[in-house]
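To assess whether the prediction recovers the assembly geometry, we first specified each molecular entity separately, as shown.
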Amino acid sequence: MTIEYATAHRRASHIPAEAGTPYFIEKGDGDRAHLFGDLITIYAGGEQTENAFNFFTVEGPKGNLIPAHVHADTYEVFYVTAGAVRLFVEDLHGNQQEKLLTPGDFGFVPKNCPHAYRMERHHSQVVGVAAGPGGTFERFFETLGAPTDQHGLPRDAFVPAPEKFATVPQQYDVRFLRDHQWKTG
Amino acid sequence: MTIEYATAHRRASHIPAEAGTPYFIEKGDGDRAHLFGDLITIYAGGEQTENAFNFFTVEGPKGNLIPAHVHADTYEVFYVTAGAVRLFVEDLHGNQQEKLLTPGDFGFVPKNCPHAYRMERHHSQVVGVAAGPGGTFERFFETLGAPTDQHGLPRDAFVPAPEKFATVPQQYDVRFLRDHQWKTG
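The predicted structure of the complete assembly is given in tokenized form:
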């Protein structure tokens, strides 16, 4: 049985429009978006949880570096379910760490801690939760990138228009750190 | 590199005692507990997220029925990463659904929706997030069950003393529905 709903985010979504409704979503059928070479799939967001938390996956090819960034009000989980993902994180005192995460491994990034990551195997997948007292920010990916009905990775990388970088990240509690350097390597 | 911390919950935990600290936990090395035949592993809790959310896994053998229960203030994610798990859920109007979830499938249970589940393959694993505006309740499992340093499923099922059922669930926003019946089968 597959139910699709018209929502604020999609003409046809498996996430119910009405909060308080239980639901199931089969693998890959969440709200999907492309951003650069990655596929982001949202399974639950703030509208489902009274803004307590969200739940999404990020899938990507090997070599896709996500630049250093920071969230002022958002805690973030990285839980790897396929492939290998190298997570870089800096604590509030400036101490840096990196670790290669393989399936079942977990990384936690508190608010205000600069971080970055790189998929180090093809077909890597990370489960993410990104939320804090100020809410959840799962629609960042499709607002900077582009919603899609396709399954699978983008055939061609989706590169946002430059002007979007000036406005979208700050609306979703993302601040890129252009000159940040990792000294952990 | 492995760092262990003394915390309020464990003499040696991979979850830092001090909030705001980034951390990594390798597969299986979170705070572990046994409850009946299951192994519950906490990777993050309310103390890490200003009570926004938690992140844990539940692993179990085939056939382990978790009785119907409900949370007044907690939204719950079931994301299957191994095996197969049948999730039963009833909406706020009394309509019941069930679905067999296999790896990559997702189920969402809003607050006040009765639900139950059963592992239908050995070595099943569910990733869980259970939180709401009132907080997070990840220590339910070890308070009703028992903390453990072991990896892997309990050798013998851990059965809580009967009197614990009278006090522990209500402290963690769990209410068991003893006479609940599923008519979906």
